[in-house]
Amino acid sequence: MASAFVVGDKFRKKVRELLEDSENSGNSDSCLPETLRGELIQLLDSPETVTLSFSTARQLKKYLQDAGHPFYLHELLEDSVLHLPEVVKPPRNPELIARLEKIKAKLANEEYNKITRNVNTQEIQRNGTLADFGRDVRSAKAVVVTVFNFLVTVVATFACSYMGSQYLFTETTARVISAVIAASVVGLAELYVLVRTMEGELGEP
């Protein structure tokens, strides 16, 4: 918060004139108070940046009003600026910094868990292992074996029926028809058993 003015050359010039007039004047009413005179002289003698405190400025204003001078304080301060002291930041508390870092890490961990909530690593591992590949191969092998057995059974039934029907039929056409009928019946039976087995593996009634 500002508490002083950084005065310019105009202020210096006017104050010097004011001090000279006060010294040359014989009227005691127009003389500067000793305290105010000392502060103004000290300001003018300072080689560094001159700052005029608000309290000194109020005393100078009161003097100008009481003495009836033809200029006012704001005229003296036309080329002056407010003096804003440098803000010194207090050192940060190490415990507070550590606590803030802990809170940040906790929030980041919660955000990560929220993002990866629907990701099932066990499911990924289970679906991506060599054991799954081996299980798929065994399933495919079982299907191939089942189909092969089905074909062998149908062909064998046809052959047996054709060979055995020679004792019942003398014509080749009748023997072929009887063999086809027997193979069809056995094939349908095998197909029914196969379908029921697959339904049982899938958990269907």
UniProtKB/TrEMBL annotation:
Subcellular location: Endoplasmic reticulum membrane
Matching InterPro entries: ATPase_Vma12 (IPR021013)
GO CC, any one term: endoplasmic reticulum membrane
Keyword set includes Endoplasmic reticulum: yes
Gene Ontology BP terms: vacuolar proton-transporting V-type ATPase complex assembly
Alphabetical keyword list: Endoplasmic reticulum, Membrane, Transmembrane, Transmembrane helix
Membrane topology note: Multi-pass membrane protein
Residues passing through the membrane, by range: 142-164, 176-195
Domain of life: Eukaryota
PANTHER family assigned to the protein according to its UniProt record, in alphabetical order: TRANSMEMBRANE PROTEIN 199
The protein, known as: Transmembrane protein 199
The species this protein was found in: Salarias fasciatus
Name of the gene: tmem199
